[in-house]
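REVIEWER CHECKLIST
Item 1: Sequence provided? yes
Item 2: Single chain? yes
Item 3: Sequence as submitted:
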Amino acid sequence: MGCCLVGCVRFLFFQLWKLLLAALVAMIFARIDDYVERRHGTSNVGRAYRAYRGRGKKKPPSTPT
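Item 4: Structure as written out by the authors:
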């Protein structure tokens, strides 16, 4: 019983560690995104960055009126 419990605790610890690391990386990327947007918003770098960032977003289909 003790061996199984240690395995479960170790599994949970590593899963929580990965979750924490992923959240930290997401926060860092959000800060970098905000910095680039503020600092280079109207320059060529800012426009290129927005084009690169928005290239995967698809526009919703237009609805007929």
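Item 5: Key structural point noted by reviewer: Helices lie at 2-39, 44-53.
Item 6: Recommendation: ____
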